[in-house]
Write a structure and sequence with these properties.
The protein has about 230 residues and is α/β, with parallel strands linked by helices. The chain has a single domain, classed as TIM Barrel, CATH 3.20.20.10. It is built from 9 helices and 8 strands. The protein is globular, with a radius of gyration of 17 Å. The two termini are about 20 Å apart.
């Protein structure tokens, strides 16, 4: 079994160093542990080490975990691509959604969010690297998409999310992060109450933090190499 507590400590150290280099407060950066495809025992180990925010990509894998760990004060984040026929369980079981790439999906999540739950925290995904395989809206559709949240009482727009091409150079990755930060600034200038930049993973978290990331999504460096459901 991996030493998950030690892995979490090492990641927190990397976050702290990156924040210091960027003259930022490490407390302004949330660590999201990406537990997709990982067993409940690993999540429990991370929880025991103090981790509270966990990200999942696959509903069929996530829902049994959420049910089994319902008594723990875990904040669940859905970070996978959204399918219209699966918005209801996302709306019912998650606190955050990171990859909204259409107004239609936002409307469905809003309509299906149970009345007894707080508003669903939402990030719009932008496709800034030009990869056809990646989800996300184009920057020129951002303001229109963000404005649609004003009509959605059960969803709260928190910010933006992106994923650069992992095979691109460090300079290209940092350029994508810089563009996303500029897009968040544009939203703020337009009067939107947004505060979240969901960007940075195991291999590029330092670059993301240098450009203003407030939430890094770390899987491999906590839980080991990716497996599949």
């Amino acid at each position: 079994m991996l030493d998950i507590a030690n892995n979490l400590a090492l990641i927190q150290q990397r976050i702290a160093r990156a924040a210091e280099n960027a003259q930022r407060n490490p407390a302004s950066i949330t660590l999201l542990a990406v537990s997709k495809t990982k067993p409940i025992e690993m999540i429990e180990a991370a929880y025991a080490a103090g981790q509270r925010s966990f990200g999942e990509n696959y509903l069929q894998d996530a829902l049994p975990k959420i049910e089994a760990l319902a008594e723990l004060d875990i904040e669940w984040h859905y970070i996978g691509r959204i399918q219209s026929n699966k918005t209801r369980p996302i709306a019912e079981h998650f606190a955050w959604v990171h990859a909204i790439d259409s107004i239609k999906h936002a409307q469905r999540l809003n309509d299906q969010r149970p009345n007894g739950l707080p508003a669903l925290n939402c990030c719009i995904q932008l496709n800034l690297s030009g990869e056809d395989s990646k989800g996300g809206i184009q920057p020129d559709a951002l303001i229109e998409t963000a404005a649609a949240f004003n009509e959605l009482p059960h969803c709260r727009l928190r910010g933006l999310m992106t994923m650069p091409d992992p095979d691109s150079s460090a300079e290209q990755q940092q350029s994508v992060f810089h563009q996303l930060a500029n897009c968040l600034d544009e939203l703020k200038q337009q009067g939107f109450d947004v505060d979240t930049l969901s960007m940075g993973m195991s291999g590029d978290l330092e670059l993301a933090i240098a450009e203003g990331s407030t939430m890094v999504r770390i899987g491999t460096d906590i839980f080991g190499a990716r497996s599949y459901p």
